[in-house]
Amino acid sequence: MAHKYRNRLAAAIRYLISGRYPPGERARNPDFDIPPISEKEIAEAKTFFSMEKFFIFGHARSGTTLLTRLIRLHYKVHCNYQGHFFTRPPLLQSLVSDEKIQSWLTRRSNRWNRGKNPSPVILRAAVDFILEREAKSLGKSIVGDKSPNSLLNGKAVRLLNNIYPDARLIYIVRDGRDAVVSHRFQSFIDATQHLSEHDWKIRETFINDPESFINGKNSIFTEKGLRRSAQGWDLNVRETVEIGKALFNDRFYSLKYEHLVENPLEELPLLWNFLNAGEPQTDIQELIANEMQSNPDADWQNQKAGEIASALQKGKRGNWEQYFNNNDRRIFEEIAGDTLKNWGYI
Q: Quick one: pLDDT band at residue 215, thresholds 50, 70, 90?
């Protein structure tokens, strides 16, 4: 019996890490849909968990971490990183998607379920507790999670809306060319387990001859990889904004990473007003200046692979101009040119 439970635990851990079930195993109810939470259930939930909630989405390497660090400088606002409740498998809904769990929750003899599926209430209560437990310990009254939604794009917005239609959704956009360059360097530094043999050759060449990538002789991308990255960024921006506006209306807020970096004292008050946080404390300018000078991610990358990290100025606008050769430029604009244009990047 103990051996059986150890196997189940090992399988669960493998799934949490990879998002995939091991060979021979299958997901229960892979297409399971959580019924949307009702207005009455939202009102009931708020009697137990009263804090206003918000969620930060964005494509990978688009400034979600910087935004998190800045937005929580307000004395009322707390935000932490990557619960991935709605943005990355295994999703929050996996807590209740097993067929046996659903049978238990919805059986007619269960008088606690009020004759309907209580899944959305259970899931909301789980997230509410996780978020508010930490916020209360810090004396904050508005709390949010930041989780990049690159993997699920618009689907993540729909999943969020099912459980938190009353929450606020903030979406940050960065020039897709800078985002994919940053992501590529990240893969060279601390995601090498995902590199192909060809990727490793590019990485080695970059270490030995970085100038050949700056002058356009070589590319840090494979063509297939760049096309996939351009398509991913384009889809993420278009779907998140379209579905976010449609579902959240005035509870949806989008901003550009570049504007946040260049004008934090202008952008942050708008965000805090969107969250109904009110005026920040009087010394906020100094707090923002200190946070803008800090870059924990850059420090970590320099420590892990300084020979690569030092070649890219973290967070700088226009890094892509240094590392895109002519073919890279053509490919990205061919795929995502309209979206770049719509956001004022070309």
A: confident
Please give the full DSSP string across 112-133, using - where no structure is assigned.
GGTTS--HHHHHHHHHHHHHHH
Q: What is the pLDDT of residue 10?
A: 55
Rounded CA separation 341/261 (Å) = 20
Q: Which two tokens stand for residue 312?
A: 């890219």
pLDDT above 60: residue 176: yes
Query: Could you give the 3-state DSSP secondary structure of residue 195?
Result: coil
Please report, as a single letter, which amino acid is at residue 214. I
DSSP string, 130-183: HHHHHHHHTT-SEEEEE---TTTTHHHHHHHHHH-TTSEEEEEE--HHHHHHHH
Whether the pLDDT of residue 24 is over 80: the answer is no
Closest to 161 measured CA to CA, from 86, 91, 95, 98? 86
What value does the mean pLDDT take over residues 178-192?
A: 91
Q: Distances in Å between the alpha carbon of 157 and those of 35, 75, 162, 177?
A: 15, 28, 9, 24
* Percent of the chain scoring above 90 in pLDDT: 77
CA 16, 18, 23: angle at the middle one, nearest 5?
100
Using CB atoms within 10 Å of the CB of residue 50, give its burial: 0 to 12 exposed, 13 to 18 middle, 19+ buried. Answer: exposed
Q: Could you give the CA distance from residue 131 to residue 133 in angstroms, rounded to a whole number? A: 6
Is the Cβ–Cβ distance between 103 and 13 less than 8 Å?
no
CA distance 156 to 87: 5
Question: Any idea which residue has 């960024």 for tokens?
Answer: 233
What is the reported pTM?
0.87
Give residue 244's pLDDT: 98
pLDDT band at 201 (very low <50, low <70, confident <90, very high): very high
What is the CATH T-level fold of the domain 47-342, as seen in this structure?
Rossmann fold (3.40.50)
List, in sequence order, every beta strand (DSSP E) within the chain. Answer: 52-58, 77-81, 142-146, 168-173, 252-256
Reading phi first (left if > 0) and then psi (alpha if -120 to 50, else beta), residue 225 is in: alpha
